[in-house]
Amino acid sequence: MNLLLSTAYLPPVEYMAAFFAGEVIIEQHENFIKQTYRNRAIVPSAEKILTLSIPVNRNNVHNCPVEQVEIDYSQSWQREHWRTLETIYNASPFFLYYKDYLYPFYHQNNIRFLFDFNNQLLKVLLQLFRMKCNYTFTEQYEPEPDNKVDLRNVIHPKKIHQPAYPFFRLDEYQQVFADRTDFVPNMSCVDLLFNEGPMANAYLQNLSKKIFPY
Fold this sequence. Notes:
Layout: E1 2-5, H1 13-17, E2 23-26, E3 40-44, E4 49-53, H2 77-89, H3 95-102, H4 114-128, E5 135-137, E6 149-150, H5 189-196, H6 200-211
Parallel strand pairs: 1-2, 1-6, 2-5
Antiparallel strand pairs: 3-4
């Protein structure tokens, strides 16, 4: 089975579970779509869900292929994102163990394009999750792809609160603020990683069997 995914920044748990469901193909020829996981991630805090967005240069996002969208480093988003991750996850069991692998992405500005940034970060995440998964990229844009499960706009931050969202009921795992809030599903995969550590791999494998019954 082939699964077609968009590029994603610190993608949600269900996105990572797709890598256990079949051969993943990442879209690189679609036009950039705002307010999606392509340049944003969501993490839970004690009070609310926080959105971490990578700003992009506005002058090149209109009808621009996603692989050509440039990151805007004039804003201090890296410092803000890293500070948020530290604040939320310092108390998690595995943040100190994994943080050095992610640190460079928030203290260097040598990756020009969003697509390249996401791809390099995804490779590190797959290693940290101990996932020996390969993926490829699309060769051209297909509005209605053949022989592929099209998840490009199914896995979407604005759909997670809709009853019809197919990945809404995820298995619970221990979260940092479990003593103050109910379990919050569909968060960035780093929420699972920092809380479950080596057990995150088994969680994703089991989850994949439940949410991708194709």
